[in-house]
Write a structure and sequence with these properties.
Structural class: alpha+beta
Helix content: 25-40%
Distance between the termini: 77 Å
Largest sheet: 4 strands, antiparallel
Radius of gyration: 20 Å
Order of helices and strands: HEEEEEEEH
Number of strands: 7
Strand content: 25-35%
Shape: elongated
Number of helices: 2
Strand order of the largest sheet: 1-2-3-4
């Protein structure tokens, strides 16, 4: 093969790799579940390529971190959420969700302030509904 053909093949292969990487980043950045999913901003540190996400549902809070291969998930039932703390910085907010059982807390970084406040409101709303309803002992 002549050098021009080799160069064209190399550029094409590089283009395919770059497009494949972008497709993976886009796919892993989509909301991982239906419902109230809060995704950290890609502009915040640590969330540029694979932003962390938090699902707040009537039964649990799920912290989802996509990885290049696989994912990392941590779930806390709403009955076991002890406190929700919001640390608001200049642009982004950090959310710390602590448990009653002593398990490691969920620490989410890089959410917009409105998302952080909404997360806290939903957790409190779901906890109120959970503890008002009758539960079997």
């Amino acid at each position: 093969m002549d050098p021009v053909t080799v160069s064209v093949i190399a550029v094409a292969a590089l283009g395919v790799l770059v497009l494949g990487g972008l497709a993976i980043v886009w796919r892993k950045g989509r909301p991982f579940a239906e419902g109230d999913v809060f995704r950290a901003s890609r502009l915040s540190p640590g969330n540029r390529l694979l932003p962390t996400q938090v699902l707040v549902s009537p039964t649990s809070v799920v912290h989802f971190t996509p990885q290049w291969v696989g994912r990392l998930e941590q779930s806390i039932h709403v009955a076991h959420v002890a406190s929700v703390r919001i640390d608001t910085n200049l642009v982004f907010s950090d959310v710390l969700i602590e448990t009653t059982g002593g398990a490691s807390p969920i620490h989410c970084r890089g959410h917009y302030k409105s998302d952080a406040v909404r997360m806290k409101q939903l957790i409190e709303q779901y906890q109120t509904a959970y503890f008002k309803s009758p539960h079997p002992s």
